[in-house]
Specification:
This protein is an alpha+beta fold and 177 residues long. It has a domain of 115 residues. Helix content is 25%, strand content 8%. A hairpin with a 5-residue loop joins strand 3 and strand 4.
Length: 177
């Protein structure tokens, strides 16, 4: 998020016209009655059409299997009671930019690492060192989230490693140098 967007959000959140009006007739220390509960489940329904690239349903499964359901950035491996991994299968070159649904274009990431990767706050060097953008607002916190090696935790099989072409694409098109 840019500094300008952040400041705009903060300034709007603190504008006086969105705060409830002061009640001069209310004695100090007394609160007004709570607003009545209103639950109107009816909403206007809209129909919309979207167009997006089809994704391979097996992409998540094959990427998470290659990475042993472990985030390749943080090293965190969390599995819920139902056996589902917290890690997500992230595309290095996104589908909307014609990135294929293949293991070498995917890495397993936690939700936060995936968010940072997609927004260019982190990326990878050619030798799989984890890069942190200078534009990140809290470099030290991001650094503390990265596994102690500072490198991507790689799959066991070399054929599953991120392809250099996809890594270069991410660095050139997503990463905020």
């Amino acid at each position: 998020m840019s500094s300008e967007d952040f400041e705009r959000i903060i300034s709007r959140g603190l504008e006086a016209d969105i705060l409830p009006p002061e009640n001069p007739d209310m004695p100090a220390g007394f609160a007004e009655d709570p607003a009545p509960f209103y639950d109107d489940p009816s909403r206007e329904m809209i129909t919309s059409w979207t167009t997006r690239a089809a994704r391979d349903r097996n992409f998540r499964k094959i990427v998470l299997t290659a990475y042993k359901e472990t985030c390749a950035i943080t090293g965190i491996r969390l599995i819920n009671g139902g056996g589902r991994a917290e890690a997500q299968a992230a595309h290095i070159k996104p589908v909307e930019h014609d990135g294929p649904d293949i293991v070498s274009n995917g890495i397993a990431l936690t939700g936060t690492a995936h968010w940072m990767f997609d927004r260019g706050l982190i990326s990878l060097s050619d030798n799989l060192d984890i890069l942190i953008s200078r534009q990140a607002n809290d470099y030290d916190t991001i650094k503390s989230m990265i596994n102690s090696s500072g490198q991507l935790i790689k799959p066991d099989r070399i054929v599953h490693y991120p392809h250099p072409e996809f890594i270069a694409w991410h660095r050139d098109n997503c990463y905020k140098h």
